[in-house]
Design goal:
elongated, two-stranded parallel ribbon, mainly alpha, 2 strands
Length: about 180
C-alpha cells in the first residue's frame, strides 16, 4: 500500500545504478510487491480459482537473481491489517468480486458465441455422393495447449534481460529502502 505519491516526489533525488553495486550489502525488498507482480503471470488461474504457484516462482527467481550478484536479501512482508485501512480493503474486495462476476459473464458469453459460430452441416442426405469430407468445427486453442508459451533465449538476450531486470529490481530496492 505504501505512501501515495512518494516515488514521484523522490524522483529528483534518485539515481539509477546497477544492482551489482550493492554486492556484499544487505537490501530489503517489499515481499508483497513481488507477490503482486508475480500474479500477473497467473491472473487467469487465480481468477478461476485454479491452484497455481507461478507467483511464488516469480519471487524465487527475483531472490535468486539478487543473491547471485552477491547481494544479501531481506524480504519484508506487511504485518496485520490496520483498522484504519478497513474501508480501503472493503473497496478492494468489492472490486474483486465485481471483476470476477464480469469475468464469469464474459466467459459464458464467449462460450455461447463460440457454439453459435461453429459450423453445423447437419445430416448428409446422400452420404454415398459426398466427394469432400463434411465440415467439422475448427478446434479452438485452449489455455492448456497454448500455455505456457516458452521461448528459448540465446545467452546474449538472456543476459540482456537479466541486466534490465536488475536495474528494475535496484530501483524497487532503493524505493523500498527509502520508505
Amino acid at each position: 500500500m505504501g505512501i501515495q505519491g512518494l516515488l514521484p516526489l523522490l524522483k529528483s533525488v534518485t539515481e539509477h545504478v546497477p544492482l551489482s553495486r550493492f554486492k556484499g550489502k544487505l537490501i530489503a525488498v517489499d515481499g508483497n510487491v513481488w507477490i503482486h507482480r508475480g500474479t500477473y503471470a497467473c491472473a487467469m488461474e487465480l481468477a478461476e480459482g485454479t491452484p497455481t504457484i507461478a507467483y511464488v516462482r516469480f519471487c524465487q527467481k527475483m531472490a535468486e537473481l539478487i543473491t547471485s550478484l552477491g547481494v544479501r536479501l531481506l524480504i519484508v512482508f506487511d504485518g496485520r491489517s490496520l483498522p484504519a485501512k478497513g474501508p480501503a480493503h472493503q473497496r478492494r474486495r468489492e472490486k474483486r468480486r465485481q471483476a470476477n462476476q464480469a469475468l464469469s459473464a464474459f466467459a459464458e458469453l464467449s462460450k455461447e458465441q463460440e457454439l453459435s459460430m461453429a459450423p453445423n452441416p447437419g445430416p448428409d442426405p446422400h452420404p454415398s455422393l459426398t466427394l469432400a469430407p463434411t465440415l467439422t468445427p475448427t478446434p479452438t486453442l485452449t489455455r492448456s495447449s497454448a500455455w505456457p508459451r516458452r521461448r528459448t533465449l540465446s545467452a546474449s538476450s538472456s543476459s540482456a534481460r537479466r541486466r534490465a531486470s536488475c536495474s528494475r529490481t535496484a530501483r524497487r530496492a532503493r524505493a523500498t529502502r527509502r520508505t
